[in-house]
Amino acid sequence: MRPLASRISQLNGEGALAVFSRAKELEKQGRSIIHLELGEPDFHPAAPIVDAVRAAVAQGRDRYVSPGGIPALREAVAAYLKRTRRLDVSAQDVLIAPGCKMALALAMMALIEPGDEVLYPDPSFPIYPSFTRGLGATAVPFFLREQNQFQPDIAEIAAKITPRSKVLIFNSPNNPTGTVFSEETLAQIAALAVKHDLWVMADEIYARILFTGEYQSIYSLPGMAERTIIIDGFSKTFAMTGWRLGYAVAPKELIDAMDLLVLNTFTCTAEFTQVAAIEALQDSANAVDAMVAEYRKRRDLFVTELNKIPGFRCQIPDGAFYAWVNIEDTGLPAEEVARLLLEEAGVAGIAGAAFGPAGKNYLRFSLVSARNLLEEALERIERVSTRWRAAVSR
Predict the structure, then answer these.
(1) Which of 43, 102, 210, 226 lies deepest, with the highest CB count within 10 Å?
(2) pTM of the full structure
(3) Sign of CA dihedral 48, 49, 55, 59
(4) 53-57 LR contacts (CB < 8 Å, sep 24+)
(5) What is the pLDDT of residues 343-356, one digit of tens each?
(6) Are the C-beta atoms of 272 and 123 separated by less than 8 Å?
(7) What residues are paired with 109 via a beta bridge?
């Protein structure tokens, strides 16, 4: 048979799914596993959202619709961003997609040519460099280091910009570190983007899961509305992971290009889920605030106790729902620590290299289990830590 397209060899998977697969195997063997590997909330959509999707299906809202999304949802997204992020966005600058990954992929396909360079943070969501390579471009990392509180080094970014640089991608709050980029950092990134005529893809999927302060989008800074693509969706904020709903906000010329790509791929996003998404954005049950308050309690519990375990060190995340844990003092590779925790303690986490080479001495835990399960996970980790305590110097 003739070979597959070479671009497939440039793609990589997600480490979380491999860990999840092994964890499920252990469960089938009768083992008790606490799942802290996937970034999937243990919450479910609020009742008004479920009621809305039922009503939409009953009303026959299951037909083909506009490729860019139904007008009512595009308008609702614009109003939502005005209310929650103080952004002035037009409905024509919004495109609805079946998930944030698809919104991200459409934007990248519309912008990136073979030979371009794309700057992205390391550690970060592994799909950024993967899809960049799949499009024939070069993924250029800039590093988020613990000694800098996982804020990017602007001088490093500036030094890596070349005439071939076209796009800079980042997400704040960051997956996996939980870092929220500072206002100074955003202003410096914006200045570089304007100076070098870069597009900026701001992945804001965790923007509402913020534990301190008010979220600032780089889109709002001078000169950035015409060069920024916001990627966001409903999976994390509204606990609608399996609904596959995301959106992009970008200049109309780019939205039009993405709309054409939709026509050539999946035609449109399911209408009944879009109708329910309008209800989600209204958040009449105040479910988002309640969920974020619970995540804050989980963060405070888990990170505080985790830092008491020999060999573990974790900075307090300002957003998202992850604990990014330095395990260098254990004297063991992160992959071995992750294996011990899963196989011997029944706690599933991810070795940090899954998020880029800068994560080699880290583990990521998702705070997506109830507090009683987090407490149990901490007890199990504490017991297994005897395997490396002798190597830890305090």
Answers:
(1) 102
(2) 0.94
(3) positive
(4) 53/272, 53/273, 53/275, 53/276, 55/275, 56/271, 56/272, 56/275, 56/276, 57/272
(5) 999 999 999 999 99
(6) no
(7) none
Residue 232: φ, ψ to 5°:
-150, 175
Q: Give me the amino acid identity at 185.
A: T
Angle made by CA atoms 135, 139, 140, in degrees to the nearest 5: 160
- 367-380 per-residue burial string, b: 16 or more CB within 10 A, e: under 16: bbbeeebbebbbeb
Q: Spell out the long-range contacts of 253-260 with Cβ–Cβ below 8 A and sequence spacing 24 or more.
A: 254/107, 254/110, 254/111, 254/229, 255/68, 255/92, 255/93, 255/94, 255/95, 257/110, 258/68, 258/95, 258/106, 258/107, 258/110, 259/67, 259/68, 259/95
Give the pLDDT confidence of 218-275 residue by residue, as tens digits.
Answer: 999 999 999 999 999 999 999 999 999 999 999 999 999 999 999 999 999 999 999 9
Cα within 13 Å of Cα(258), Cβ side: 29
Q: 346 with 32: CB under 8 angstroms? A: yes
- Report CA Rg, the chain: 21
Dist. CA 280–CA 286, nearest whole Å = 10
Q: Which long-range contacts (CB under 8 A, 24 or more apart) does 152-156 make?
A: 152/121, 152/181, 152/185, 152/189, 154/185, 154/188, 154/189, 154/192
The length of the chain, given as a count of residues = 394
Token code pair at residue 9? 């060899």
The 10s digit of each residue's pLDDT in 162-181 is: 999 999 999 999 999 999 99
Distance CA 238, CA 243 (A): 10
**CA 78, 81, 84, 87 torsion-angle sign:** negative
pLDDT digit string, tens, across residues 301-326: 999 999 999 999 999 999 999 999 99
Is the pLDDT at 391 greater than 70, yes or no?
no
**Phi-psi group of 343: left, alpha or beta (phi > 0 → left; psi -120 to 50 → alpha; rest → beta):** alpha
Report the C-alpha gap between 99 and 7 in whole angstroms. Answer: 22
